[in-house]
Specification:
The chain is an alpha+beta fold. The protein contains seven helices and five strands. One of its GO terms (biological process) is endoplasmic reticulum to Golgi vesicle-mediated transport.
Amino acid sequence: MKLLSIMILHKNPSLGQTRLLKGEYELGSFSFFTKRNAQEFMQFTAKLVSDRSATPSRSTIKEGEYFVHCFVRHDSLVGVCLTDEEYQSRVAFALLNKVLADFSDRIPQSSWASIQSERDCNYDQLPMFLTKWQNPREADALTRVQDEVEETKVVLHNTMQSVLERGEKLDDLIKASENLSDQSKLFYTQARKMNKCCNYV
């Protein structure tokens, strides 16, 4: 699961263009000679997708083995992140929502249109977001809960399997049980017979 970049852009409706305000990139998976080209391609893709996206909107576009997640807010502030296919789009949009909220809290909207390049933008939180959200389980509470539920399912399944693999048959345990009434034992036996009959049909 990889988060390759986070970029903040601004769509200027009067000029009809989108400008990159700030970007942060994780280029460790690219060779030394291709890092610059990879970063330029990410910036180009972010601008292209932002330009062609409605205001407001959310979209996910597949580009080769990567996914481009674009969130355009009603105020024309845009967040774009590039991820691999394992990174969930729900998590990507949760990240972009937090990034844009933090950016707009720190950088006044009145200055967005006047930012000409990344050097002009005094926002320094993207490295923190890029590092923290590499592992969505730590950054996103819903992902953490979903993972814990999945782990619990596996543990419950494995626990039942380990009970049945000890060499004891469930039938023998039921017959020997003093906690089950004769009627419950009869019900279990008949249900087993019915299941066997159904398997032959």
